Amino acid sequence: MAKRIIHRKKIYEEIVDHLFDDIKNGVYKVNEELPSERELMEEFGVGRPAVREAISKLELMGLIDVRSGSVAKVREPTIQRLVDEMSGVVQLLLMSPEGEATFQEIRLILEVALVRKAARDAGSEQIRKLELALEDNRQNLNDRNKFAESDLSFHQALAEITGNSVIIGVMQSLSSWLMRKREVTLAKSGQSKMAFEAHQKILDGIKKRNPDLAETAMQDHLSQIQNIWAEQIDNEISESGS
Asked: What are the TM regions of this chain, as residue ranges (predicted)?
């Protein structure tokens, strides 16, 4: 019989496990205070360092808020909090070509799924919101900054069709994380017009209730953006090396 390795937990990790279970099971509800350091020391029969390390770990996990001079409180779990916890790591990942490619692939998978769902399920009010965002695109073709805002609005309106707070939050975050790509690609002459025309084709597929047509339009749109991005980055590398 193969041997199985048993990993001994540190004292603070056991405290974390117990408090996590308490939070999960509603012993401590959102915005309620955890016991004080001294009370936790007595409850678990441990010293102050173990309690403080456990509290720090729970804070790092995003489960509690700790303010100087006050007792830790249970945080409300939200998508935005989750995203905020991830943002620093994401920004570092995006500094490498591999990391950027990974997030671009995530965007492609998500947005293709979004337009397919929109073509099947979008209601008249949701389509109207896409039309308004598209009209905003058209009116701001000569203003890069305003066009970028309307571009975000169009893609976010697609996410909102799902009614899924996680998807909506993830799309908002992807847009934020990939903002440099949007700025770089829109700087290319004529790109705002090309993006506007791509959005028209995407919306046309949605209004025709044709998921395949909408998907093809979105794939073409994102592929064209990726090509411009790669070209611009190559130019930056060439200029920095000259």
From this structure: none
Residue 164 CA to residue 166 CA, distance in Å, equals: 6
Closest CA to 132 of 157, 159, 167: 157
Task: Tell me which CATH code domain 11-74 carries.
Answer: 1.10.10.10
Q: Express each pLDDT in 123-149 by its tens digit.
A: 999 999 999 999 999 999 999 989 999
**For the whole model, what pTM was predicted?**
0.70
End-to-end CA distance of the chain: 63
C-beta separation of 211 from 167 below 8 A: no
DSSP 128: H
Domain ranges in the chain? 11-74, 80-241
pLDDT of 23-82, one tens digit each?
A: 999 999 999 999 999 999 999 999 999 999 999 999 988 899 998 777 899 998 877 777
Q: How far apart are the C-alpha atoms of 148 and 90, rounded to whole Å?
A: 22
CATH 1.20.120.530 fits 80-241, yes or no: yes
**Residues 6 or more apart in contact with residue 140 via CB below 8 angstroms:** 146, 147, 149, 150, 192
**Ramachandran area for residue 30 (φ above 0: left; ψ -120 to 50: alpha; else beta):** beta
Answer for the pair 59, 65: CB distance below 8 angstroms, yes or no: yes
Task: List Cα–Cα distances, 37 to 27, 73, 75, in angstroms.
Answer: 17, 13, 18
